[in-house]
Design brief:
About 90% of the residues lie in helices and about 0% in strands. It has about 40 residues and is mainly alpha-helical. The chain has one domain. The radius of gyration is 10 Å and the shape is elongated. Keywords: Membrane, Transmembrane, Transmembrane helix.
């Protein structure tokens, strides 16, 4: 769905900028959880 696509896009952008897998996964997971629990109920 939409939350997954947004999270994946953010993860890809972060990974290109930071080159850190843990940061990318962690931030992506947090953003996904926030999107699912607040915007896409």
């Amino acid at each position: 769905g939409i939350p997954e696509l947004i999270s994946i896009a953010i993860i890809i952008i972060l990974h290109i900028i930071k080159r850190n897998v843990l940061i990318s996964i962690g931030v992506g997971t947090v953003i996904y959880m926030i999107l699912v629990q607040t915007i896409f109920i």
